[in-house]
């Protein structure tokens, strides 16, 4: 398993992602990208869905990418990378390309949970050898904090704001990791920017598989979540501690819980740190909504425990 | 040099002819999704793959949107890439067709022309092809299976020409051409392979030692210039087409000289302009009327995009009257082909009277008798300038 020194050394040898990207100071996405790319030994080709990452790293004629990178549209990163990966196999067979290459697609929750779900499902079912990484910051941040199907119940979003008749988003988030698990691909995992070593290990596992793999990474967006930029990884860590975002993996069909909080915090305490939930606390506390959120977390946790072998690795 | 003696005469449907061309070209990657009336192309091609007759990697995607996306991915990766579709499939692809053009992907696409919904219909018209009018793809229209076969092979060379690097669509009328059998002369496999040559991409994404960023974000400072490069690429198509046609003629003995086929056009006073299989029906009408001494002729357009403005104007200038037959609507104005032709004729000194007919929507059959009537109608100087419809119940 790569430690921090190994990752740092790899980045010294080849900066794969860097140089003047325009992502916000305090954004979680570059943590995801650098950890993913530095955890892969082999040459990497990246496909990117439209979103913050694409927009802020490839402002023509500049690029922050020092590995081959392709973007076509919003909903099709998985389809695009499946074309690239297929071309690799076709050209390798004909002796026109040699050497090992790993293929990674990055998409946000909008590009993955919502508009890109069909393309993702198709590519997973077809069995292309690629890693899809979703950086999940729980809303359409690039276009202005609109709700996605990853936005949690009660969160304020610009298209589902709290008001006299509303407490923000009315539906629980979709469980994409388990939807992907339903494809029975070799490797599926959930990770967080707060637990980079766990993420790094999961990337290593993922790219070692002959077929498709998927990692859903909790990546906070301080602009949309409304907390101070310096708390980016701390908020993500507390999401794990609150069991809101369990770290687990499904490796060749075996479910493993990677981290069990010793003293889980109440979700209320996590929500309170974020401006997007402030309307749940004032003018008076919306106890019923908070109870619904906690109940959903408890339900999900119990469901996960029933499926998993508890094997903490973090 | 090859001669016609090396060709094989076969009875093939349009689908088979296109699939045979794809087999002979043997692209690296094909991505496609089923849709009537395109599906059989892929059935034949999938059998070629299954039986090892081609080494192509076939991606059986979950939608046309993903088909086109996978094609772009494969093309930028450095693979020779093809697909085929129709109608709603093309509509679903079209977002990515624009992007394929902008990313300068030489993807050859067979389009089994079919009416767009709604109402849903599976039969031929050209409304799907018109989706690509402004998308940055070169478009060829075939009259018969032979042309579809020949165009598929020529399209490969046009698309991959260094000054073009754009998608090329080969349009063939759904059912009328795709599902009917015709005598087709196939070239020898080796000759086709030699003709299309090896694809040598300039900046393949898979060159990991020379990383490229493909499909970046371009703001007002650069977007306009990048679009202008597409304009230049499209404008280089006619010259490339002529060169490819000349080379293809030496290979096959089949002469395609120019952007349209003239049929009794030179001395004609009354002309029909049409694309696709209805050109064959029009030839029958021309033959009948010529036998009666009528000076009628046909301009059968092969190249719809880029539109050969000057050549069309030169060919139609001085005619008494021209009927432009559209197999698609541009709701709110005359038909798309009429608008192209009338715009081309604007600079002409001796402009013919110009009429627009809509025909064959949703697969409505158009007969030679009806086209004879068109030739007779446009001879009347008082004939109305409104849109005319062939065989429509009002």
Walkthrough of the structure:
The complex is a heterodimer of chains A (314) and B (394). Chain A has 314 residues and is an alpha/beta fold. Chain A has one domain: Thiamin diphosphate (ThDP)-binding fold, Pyr/PP domains (Rossmann fold), CATH 3.40.50.970. Chain A is 38% helix and 15% strand. Chain A has a nine-stranded mixed beta sheet, sandwiched between helices. Chain A has a two-stranded antiparallel ribbon with strand order 5-6. In chain A, strand 5 and strand 6 (166-167) form a beta hairpin. In chain A, helix 2 (29-38) crosses helix 8 (196-208) and helix 4 (77-93) runs parallel beside helix 6. The model of chain A has no long low-confidence stretch (mean pLDDT 96). Chain B has 13 helices and 16 strands. A seven-stranded mixed beta sheet of chain B has the order 3-2-4-5-7-6-13, sandwiched between helices. Chain B has a six-stranded mixed beta sheet with strand order 10-12-11-14-15-16, with helices on both faces. In chain B, strands 1-8 form a two-stranded antiparallel sheet. Chain B is globular and about 70 Å long. Strand 2 of chain A pairs parallel with strand 9 (213-214) of chain B, so a sheet runs across the interface.
Write the layout of secondary structure elements.
The complex is a heterodimer of chains A (314) and B (394).
Chain A lengths: L3 H10 L15 H10 L5 E5 L3 H6 L11 E2 L6 H17 L8 E7 H6 L2 H10 L4 E6 L25 E2 L2 E2 L8 H6 L5 E6 L3 H13 L4 E6 L3 H4 L6 H10 L6 E4 L2 E4 L9 H5 L15 H21 L1 E2 L4
Parallel strand pairs in A: 1-2, 1-3, 3-4, 4-8, 7-8, 10-11
Antiparallel strand pairs in A: 5-6, 7-9, 9-10
Helix pairs in contact in A: 2-8, 4-6
Chain B lengths: L7 E6 H12 L3 E4 L6 H12 L6 E4 L3 H14 L3 E5 L1 H16 L5 E6 L13 H4 L7 E4 L3 H16 L7 E6 L7 E6 L2 H8 L16 E2 L8 H13 L1 H16 L7 E4 L6 E5 L3 H14 L4 E6 L1 E3 L3 H8 L4 E6 L9 H10 L7 E6 L9 H10 L10 E2 L5
Parallel strand pairs in B: 2-3, 2-4, 4-5, 5-7, 6-7, 11-12, 11-14, 14-15, 15-16
Antiparallel strand pairs in B: 1-8, 6-13, 10-12
């Amino acid at each position: 398993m790569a430690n921090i020194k190994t990752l740092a050394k790899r980045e010294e040898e080849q900066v794969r992602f860097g140089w003047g990207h325009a992502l916000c100071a305090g954004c979680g996405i570059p943590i995801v990208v650098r950890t993913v790319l530095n955890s892969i030994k082999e040459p990497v080709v990246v496909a990117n869905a439209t979103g913050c990452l694409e927009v802020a790293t490839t402002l023509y004629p500049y690029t922050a990418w020092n590995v081959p990178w392709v973007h076509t549209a919003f909903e099709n990163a998985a389809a695009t990378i499946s074309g690239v990966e297929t071309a690799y196999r076709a050209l390798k067979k004909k002796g026109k390309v040699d050497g090992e290459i790993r293929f990674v697609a990055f998409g946000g929750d909008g590009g993955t949970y919502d508009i890109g779900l069909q393309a993702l499902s198709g590519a997973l079912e077809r069995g292309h050898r690629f890693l899809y990484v979703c950086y999940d910051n729980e809303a359409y941040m690039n276009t202005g904090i609109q709700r996605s199907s990853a936005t949690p119940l009660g969160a304020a979003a610009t298209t589902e704001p709290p008001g006299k008749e509303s407490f923000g988003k009315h539906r629980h988030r979709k469980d994409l990791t388990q939807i992907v698990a339903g494809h029975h691909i070799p490797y599926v995992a959930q990770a967080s920017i707060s637990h980079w070593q766990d993420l790094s290990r999961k990337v290593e596992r993922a790219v070692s598989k002959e077929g498709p793999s998927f990692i859903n990474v909790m990546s906070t967006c301080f602009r949309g979540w409304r907390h101070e930029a310096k708390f980016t990884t701390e908020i993500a860590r507390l999401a794990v501690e609150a069991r809101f975002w369990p770290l687990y993996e499904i490796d060749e069909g075996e479910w493993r819980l990677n981290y069990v909080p010793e003293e889980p915090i109440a979700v209320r305490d996590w929500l309170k740190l974020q401006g997007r939930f402030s309307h749940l606390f004032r003018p008076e506390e919306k106890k019923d909504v908070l109870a619904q959120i906690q109940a959903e977390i408890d339900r999900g946790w119990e469901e996960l425990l029933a499926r998993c072998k508890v094997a903490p690795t973090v | 040099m090859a001669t016609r003696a090396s060709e094989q005469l076969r009875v093939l449907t349009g689908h088979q002819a296109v699939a045979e061309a794809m087999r002979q070209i043997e692209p690296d990657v094909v991505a496609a999704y089923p849709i009537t009336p395109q599906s059989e192309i892929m059935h034949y091609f999938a059998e070629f793959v299954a039986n090892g007759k081609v080494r192509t990697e076939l991606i059986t995607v979950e939608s046309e949107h993903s088909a086109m996306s996978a094609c772009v991915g494969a093309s930028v990766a450095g693979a020779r890439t093809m697909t085929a579709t129709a109608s709603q499939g093309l509509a679903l692809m079209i977002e990515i067709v624009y992007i394929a053009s902008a990313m300068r992907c030489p993807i050859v696409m067979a389009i089994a022309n079919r009416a767009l919904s709604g109402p849903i219909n599976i039969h031929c018209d050209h409304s799907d092809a018109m989706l690509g009018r402004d998308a940055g793809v070169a478009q060829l229209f075939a009259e018969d299976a032979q042309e579809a076969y020949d165009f598929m092979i020529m399209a490969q060379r046009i698309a991959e020409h260094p000054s073009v690097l754009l998608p090329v669509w080969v349009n063939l009328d759904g059912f009328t051409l795709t599902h009917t059998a015709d005598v087709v002369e196939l070239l020898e496999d080796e000759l086709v392979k030699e003709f299309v040559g090896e694809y040598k991409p300039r900046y393949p994404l898979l060159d990991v030692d020379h990383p490229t960023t493909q499909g970046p974000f371009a703001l007002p400072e650069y977007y306009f210039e990048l679009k202008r490069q597409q304009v230049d690429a499209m404008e280089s198509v006619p010259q490339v087409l002529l060169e490819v046609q000349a080379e293809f003629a030496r290979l096959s003995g089949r002469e395609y000289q120019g952007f349209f086929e003239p049929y009794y056009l030179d001395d004609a006073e009354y002309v029909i302009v049409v694309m696709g299989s209805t050109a064959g029906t029009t030839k029958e009408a021309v033959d009948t009327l010529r036998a009666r001494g009528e000076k009628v002729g046909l301009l059968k357009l092969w190249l719809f995009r880029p539109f050969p403005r000057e050549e069309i104007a030169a060919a139609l200038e001085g005619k008494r009257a021209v009927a432009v037959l559209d197999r698609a609507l541009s709701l709110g104005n005359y038909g798309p082909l009429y608008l192209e032709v009338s715009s081309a004729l604007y600079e002409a000194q001796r402009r013919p009277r110009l009429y627009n007919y809509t025909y064959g929507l949703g697969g409505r059959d158009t007969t030679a008798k009806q086209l004879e009537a068109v030739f007779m109608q446009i001879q009347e100087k008082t004939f109305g300038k409104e849109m005319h419809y062939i065989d429509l119940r009002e």
